[in-house]
Design brief:
SH3 type barrels; 2 helices; about 25% strand
Length: about 90
C-alpha cells in the first residue's frame, strides 16, 4: 500500500493528477466501497488488462465472482473486465 500512496503522490507532483483526484484515490486505498451492478466507477489503474483510459467513468454491468472479483464495465462504447483494485465507486 505504501508504494500505491507514493505513486499517487508522484502523479500529483508530475501534474498527472489534481490534488482532489489524489484525495479520492488515497481514500479508496483505505475505504472499501462496494461495487454493484449499475454503479459508476472511476478507472484508476490497469492491473489485469483492459483498455479504458485512466480517469474514465464507466458503469458496472455484470459481475463474475472470482479471486480477482471481476466486474464487467462499459463506457458506452466498449466493455472490459475490471477488478476492484482498478477503480473506485463515484
Amino acid at each position: 500500500m505504501k508504494n500505491k500512496r507514493l505513486e499517487i503522490l508522484q502523479k500529483v507532483a508530475n501534474k498527472e493528477l489534481t490534488p482532489e483526484q489524489a484525495d479520492e484515490r488515497l481514500l479508496s486505498l483505505f475505504i472499501k466501497r462496494s461495487w454493484e451492478i449499475g454503479k459508476k466507477i472511476v478507472v484508476i489503474d490497469c492491473i489485469y488488462g483492459h483498455e479504458f483510459e485512466e480517469n474514465a467513468v464507466v458503469e458496472v454491468v455484470e459481475h463474475e465472482p472470482s479471486y480477482m472479483a471481476k466486474w464487467l464495465c462499459t463506457d458506452g462504447n466498449y466493455s472490459w473486465w475490471l477488478s476492484e483494485e482498478e477503480g473506485y465507486v463515484c
